């Protein structure tokens, strides 16, 4: 029923969403060649006594992890058991460790409606996307105590205080700017999420056991230098040479302190169906850390489930990274964007997320850093595209399709395009897939 409704509504509207309330028209392609952000849009960094930026909302990190006695008491109250999906397990982990600060559990109906409609919690605080538990179990009602398990492991208890049947058509239109099932998040909401949404406090006692470690905000902050800038780089794919040039050059941005560092913070939860599996991405990051051995580049992994929500997801990522101790955020071209699964048309403009993030940076108390368009030239190596064009340099290109073909065939991959250690991991993954 819902999927049919979404198909009908999606067929009546174009793919490009109208999410940019209060943001000027995006720049033309010509004007977008150099996307330097003005300091006029930067937020003021407010630091705590430890020298790190204060978490979202200005208070402390909200940790929902219970001690052994409280955990045992929480277990004894349970009257339902719910096995979490991979996406739900990511949400539970981020709630319990404080990644979603200031939330102390899954949003209730009031908070959900406020975030869907206004992108704000009921008190007015910005929040990019709703964080809800879903179920199709009609016996779960307000007052239910849920034992949340992940692959059989008991990870948390949820005290349900709100249950409602959401208007998913309104949700996806407001949050993703589309009702088309060709959008991966619209399809997820329509076909994977249950009939009811649940809100309520969460008590955690174990983190989901994963093959890759995800440090908590407290742990990440402890490994970052205090009193200086931390620039977050979000990614969901293996890092190649152009990515590395992009985030290391971000340290030279005029609004970044000279002794600042980059936190490479990839999402290792579910993304798009055709993305490289999280465990493979994790191995590429691990070998790359050793290969580059750069003291100004820190690494950590984020148990986050991507929505591919473009502008709204940029806000969500900034909030999460602020909780992990980041003062700045690199907004890439077409960040968290996606294409129609049928036509290949983009759901968002190339710079929609950048413009949206820039327009909210002051309120978030963070600073944005432009994602430079770097290219490799025969004459000068990596430089920005506008300089290469101005000087008439020879730009070398390698498409993603050609790169994947070369991986499969065993052809040498140019050093200017990819790191040898990353290529080795990807080739090993390819061979494993073939052998299966």
Automatic annotation (TrEMBL):
<comment type="pathway">
    <text>Sulfur metabolism; hydrogen sulfide biosynthesis; sulfite from sulfate: step 1/3.</text>
</comment>
<dbReference type="Pfam" id="PF14306">
    <property type="entry name" value="PUA_2"/>
</dbReference>
<feature type="domain" description="ATP-sulfurylase PUA-like">
    <location>
        <begin position="54"/>
        <end position="205"/>
    </location>
</feature>
<dbReference type="Pfam" id="PF01747">
    <property type="entry name" value="ATP-sulfurylase"/>
</dbReference>
<dbReference type="InterPro" id="IPR002650">
    <property type="entry name" value="Sulphate_adenylyltransferase"/>
</dbReference>
<keyword id="KW-0067">ATP-binding</keyword>
<dbReference type="InterPro" id="IPR025980">
    <property type="entry name" value="ATP-Sase_PUA-like_dom"/>
</dbReference>
<dbReference type="GO" id="GO:0004781">
    <property type="term" value="F:sulfate adenylyltransferase (ATP) activity"/>
</dbReference>
<dbReference type="InterPro" id="IPR024951">
    <property type="entry name" value="Sulfurylase_cat_dom"/>
</dbReference>
<feature type="domain" description="Sulphate adenylyltransferase catalytic">
    <location>
        <begin position="216"/>
        <end position="428"/>
    </location>
</feature>
<dbReference type="InterPro" id="IPR014729">
    <property type="entry name" value="Rossmann-like_a/b/a_fold"/>
</dbReference>
<comment type="similarity">
    <text>Belongs to the sulfate adenylyltransferase family.</text>
</comment>
<dbReference type="GO" id="GO:0000103">
    <property type="term" value="P:sulfate assimilation"/>
</dbReference>
<dbReference type="InterPro" id="IPR015947">
    <property type="entry name" value="PUA-like_sf"/>
</dbReference>
<keyword id="KW-0548">Nucleotidyltransferase</keyword>
<protein>
    <recommendedName>
        <fullName>sulfate adenylyltransferase</fullName>
        <ecNumber>2.7.7.4</ecNumber>
    </recommendedName>
</protein>
<dbReference type="GO" id="GO:0005524">
    <property type="term" value="F:ATP binding"/>
</dbReference>
<keyword id="KW-0547">Nucleotide-binding</keyword>
<keyword id="KW-0808">Transferase</keyword>
